Amino acid sequence: MALKSILLVFLVLAAAAAPIAVAQLGLLNGLLGLISIKGTVACSLGGGTAASGSALPVFPNALVQLQCGPGNVVASSTTNGSGVFSIILDPLQMLLSSLLNNCGLVVNTPLASCNAQLPALGGLRSPLQFIGSTVQGLLNIANVIPTEFRYVSATT
Ligand SMILES: *[C@@H]1O[C@H](CO)[C@@H](O)[C@H](O)[C@H]1NC(C)=O
């Protein structure tokens, strides 16, 4: 008897939870959703995202953190030799609207590590910008980029 009621409770919970999980995964339109945050960090006090074609030098081996709210690191990535980083989030972790409104990118690796003339303290920050979705097979990818990295003397 007890086992049966436990089983019943489990079935009811599973039935209630399933549609929510499916909706959050973006499966309603038959596609699995992902959020991709990609960009290039420039070895510069600001004014650029070192987009391809830009004359700004790049910032390799910089730790790029996705922060939501003060000091809350949600994900991180390191720039490669071309200053490029990439962070992939699934929509279970974060809704796109909340990401754009509450989160930003923070680079605390000192600029002095890519150019000794630049400050050894502080770091770079950028808000986020949605630039559209792309479909790759079964994946619906929401593409997000840094708006512009700017130097701030204290990154708390
Ligand atoms: C850095 O990553 C980008 C994007 O994946 C790639 O195009 C580029 O070749 C990489 N650079 C190096 C030096 O690995």
The biggest beta sheet is recorded as: 9 strands, mixed
Q: What is the helix fraction of residues, given as a range?
A: 10-25%
Number of strands: 9
Structural category is alpha+beta
**What does the radius of gyration come to?**
20 Å
> Ligands in the structure?
2-acetamido-2-deoxy-beta-D-glucopyranose
Q: How many domains comprise the coordinates? A: 2
Shape, per Cα inertia axes:
globular
Mean of all residue-level pLDDT scores: 82
Organism: Morella rubra
Signal peptide: 1-17
InterPro entries: Phylloplanin-like (IPR040404)
Protein name: Phylloplanin
What can you tell me about this protein's structure?
- Strands 1, 2, 3, 4, 5, 6, 7, 8 and 9 form a nine-stranded mixed β-sheet that branches.
- With 156 residues, the chain is an alpha+beta fold.
- The model has no long low-confidence stretch (mean pLDDT 82).
- The protein has helices at 2-24, 96-102; strands spanning 32-40, 46-48, 63-68, 73-78, 84-89, 103-107, 123-136, 139-146, 149-152.
- It is globular and about 70 Å long.
- 19% of the residues lie in helices and 39% in strands.
- It starts with a helix and ends with a strand.
- The chain has two domains: 1-31; 33-152, Immunoglobulin-like (Sandwich).
- It binds 2-acetamido-2-deoxy-beta-D-glucopyranose.
- Residues 80-82, 84 line the site of 2-acetamido-2-deoxy-beta-D-glucopyranose.
